[in-house]
Every structure is written in C-alpha cells, then in structure tokens.
Amino acid sequence: MKIVVIGGSGLIGSKVVAKLNQAGHEVIAASPATGINTITGEGLDQALAGTDVVVDLANSPSFEDNAVMAFFRTAGNNLLPAEIKAGVKHHLALSIVGVDLMQDSGYMRAKKVQEDLIKQSGVPYTVIRSTQFFEFIGGIANQATEGNVVHISDLQFQPIAAEDVATFVAEAALAAPVNGIQEIAGPGRFTMPELITRYLKAGNDPRKVEPNQNLQYYGARISYAALVPAGQAKLGAIDFENWLSSQLANA
C-alpha cells in the first residue's frame, strides 16, 4: 500500500511513518522540505500518483487566528481535490477531542473548518479526534505561569502519549475509512491542576499550582469537560506514570 503522510517529520508524523514503514508499506513523509507543499500545491500531483491513503498530520506554523484559519483552509482546498484527481481511497486526519465545543478559540475554529472540508470533499475519510498529549503538559504550565505560580483552570483532562496517538493513527490508516469520527484518549482522567502539580513535582520544579474556576484553555473559554471524550473512546496503553518515567529516564 502506498501511503503519503502530510507532516511526516513532526512529533506524530515521524512516529507514524516509522510504524507504517516497519509494517512493509511504501510511505512518503511529505513536507515542504521534501518538495511537497499543501499550501502552494507544489509536488502534490506527483506525490499522490498511485497513492492509496493520505494521512494529514500537518500543523500550522502560526497559531494566530487568521493565520491558522488560512493554513487549514488553503491546505484542505489544495490537498483534497488533488486526492480526488489521483483516486486516493482514504483520507485520514488528526483532529482534537472537543473541537466543536471550543469555538471561542481561533485554532479550534480552524480545525473544525478542516474537518468540514474533509466531510464535504467526497473522499472516503476517517477523522481521529485525540485528547491533548502528555507532551503538552510542560507548555500548558509555562503559558499559565506568572512569577512562581501556575494559574490553571480546574478542567477535566485525559491526555494521551504521542506514541499511543501514532499507534492509533497507523492502525486507522491500514483500515477501511469509517466516514466519521473516532475518538482516542489516555487511560486515566484527572483534573488539569492535579496533573500539572504531579508533573512539576516529579521534575523538582518549584512552581506552585493555583487552580481557578475561569474555565479557560490557552485564553479561550471552554466547558469543564470539553477536553475529555463525551462518549466511547479508544484508550491508549501508556499511563501518566509510565510516560513520566520514560521522560525522566531520557532527560
């Protein structure tokens, strides 16, 4: 099977490419650096010739509201028609659990547009909505830090390891399109202040966590449970303790 992975050099993309290569498939890791650009259209027709599956894991280089909307809209409007022209049988994209519940965020509005373009394209598809990654916890703490205090909203939180995300994406790429949404999440549910406190403590970080009831995530207002699956989700195998141990061992 020939599979093109858009964003194939990123955190998830590089892992997905490795897993699909290991399974014996012909895999192209697509990015502007390899001459395949979904924004300009450069290299798309050549890369997609004879392709069975496209896995779209690309992310916007800017999270500014207008820039991120332009990125996902332009990429979808270039990539999906090129897939129809090439006869691609399955388009798989990674999205975010609760994306439709967090429309106060410009980034989430752009991801929802990406999903809608896929659904309207006519290409058989699978959208995998993932919870946030364990790998994001440090960044979440940093953006909420003032002085020595992390001001973090008391939200439900069920992050997943990037390795598990890549496993689910690779499995879905080799399966038939579901023409719908699948949700994936980590195996444990926490509150965000609880998990960030444990993360900082494990790293001997002296910052204190101060929970609040603002219900904000990166400045956007969301609901208490927007970041966790609403129904049945596939759960990853790596829990927080095992993920943290691996991070500390590699530090």
UniProtKB/TrEMBL annotation:
A family per Pfam: NAD_binding_10
Domain NAD(P)-binding: 7-173
InterPro entries: ComplexI_NDUFA9_subunit, NAD(P)-bd_dom, NAD(P)-bd_dom_sf
GO molecular function, one term: protein-containing complex binding
PANTHER family: NADH DEHYDROGENASE [UBIQUINONE] 1 ALPHA SUBCOMPLEX SUBUNIT 9, MITOCHONDRIAL, NADH-UBIQUINONE OXIDOREDUCTASE 39 KDA SUBUNIT-RELATED
Record's protein name: SDR family oxidoreductase
Originating organism: Chitinophaga varians
Lineage: Bacteria, Pseudomonadati, Bacteroidota, Chitinophagia, Chitinophagales
